[in-house]
Specification:
The protein is built from 5 helices and 6 strands. By secondary structure, the chain is an alpha+beta fold. It has a domain of 90 residues. A 3-stranded antiparallel β-sheet has the order 1-5-6. A 3-stranded antiparallel β-sheet has the order 2-3-4, covered by helices on one side. The longest helix is centred in the first third of the chain and has 13 residues. The chain is elongated, with a radius of gyration of 18 Å.
Length: 129
C-alpha cells in the first residue's frame, strides 16, 4: 500500500452574491425555496430595526449539514453541486469564494452552446465533451 497523490476534479457550481438588500434577499430565498430548501431573512437586532427604520444589519439564514448558517452582506450563496437532504445551499465569504471559484466563460462552454443551456444553467455540450 502506497500513498498516491490526487487532484480534486473541477466542479461547476451555481452561486449568487448577496447585495445586503431586502430585494436581494427575496431573490435568493426564492431561489433556495425553488430547490426544496429553506432560508429566512433575519435581523440581528429586531428592536433597533423597528425603531430605526431597518438600519440594523440583516442576514439570510439557511439550514446546512453543519447546522444553521448565516450569510451576511457580500457573502456568496452556493448551490451544493452534490446536494443532500441536509445541505443544498451554503454561504461562502467573498475572499474564500474568489480564491476557490472562477466564472464559467464562453471559452469553457463554447460559442456553439449559447442556446443549449438547461434550466439549471449547465451547458449540456460542454458537460458531454
Amino acid at each position: 500500500m502506497t500513498v498516491t497523490r490526487y487532484r480534486k476534479r473541477p466542479v461547476e457550481i451555481e452561486a449568487i452574491q448577496w447585495d445586503g438588500t431586502a430585494d436581494g434577499a427575496t431573490r435568493i430565498i426564492d431561489w433556495i425555496l425553488s430547490h426544496g430548501s429553506t432560508a429566512t431573512y433575519t435581523c440581528s437586532n429586531p428592536e433597533r430595526c423597528a425603531e430605526h427604520d431597518g438600519d440594523t444589519p440583516h442576514s439570510i439564514a439557511m439550514r446546512t449539514l453543519e447546522g444553521t448558517m448565516r450569510a451576511d452582506l457580500g457573502d456568496w450563496i452556493i448551490r451544493e453541486p452534490f446536494p443532500t437532504d441536509d445541505r443544498k445551499f451554503y454561504p461562502c465569504k467573498p475572499d474564500i469564494f474568489a480564491a476557490t471559484y472562477e466564472p464559467v466563460s464562453e471559452e469553457t462552454c463554447g460559442p456553439e452552446c449559447s442556446e443549449m443551456h438547461t434550466e439549471t444553467g449547465r451547458c449540456e455540450i460542454a458537460r458531454n465533451r
